[in-house]
Design brief:
Largest sheet: 4 strands, mixed
Shape: globular
Number of strands: 4
Strand content: 15-25%
Low-confidence stretches: none
CATH superfamily: Glutaredoxin
Structural class: alpha+beta
CATH class: Alpha Beta
Oligomer: single chain
Strand order of the largest sheet: 2-1-3-4
């Protein structure tokens, strides 16, 4: 399975939605909470090319974007190949 990192906050409904999709896919992920952690939020913003909203999702180091981006990628059939590519590595 691919290496997935997701930057989140505790009460973010978009974070919950993104994690739910990944869980339905059977994907495991590392959750990085940024609420109350300015250093983690700064690292997220830097990695995400300036994006400051959560979630920010990375699959095998590739920035996917937020929840809407993840769901759009899934809708057009692009998420499963990324998840499978990580399994083949």
């Amino acid at each position: 399975m691919a290496h997935i990192e997701i930057y989140t906050t505790a009460t973010c409904p978009y974070c919950i939605r993104a994690k739910s999709l990944l869980a339905r896919k059977g994907a495991t992920f590392t959750e990085i909470p940024v609420d109350g952690d300015p250093a983690a939020r700064a690292a997220m913003t830097e990695r995400a090319g300036g994006a400051r909203t959560v979630p920010q999702i990375f699959i095998d180091g590739r920035h996917i974007g937020g929840s809407d981006d993840l769901h759009a990628l899934n809708a057009k059939g692009g998420l499963d190949p990324l998840l499978a590519a990580g399994a083949a590595s």
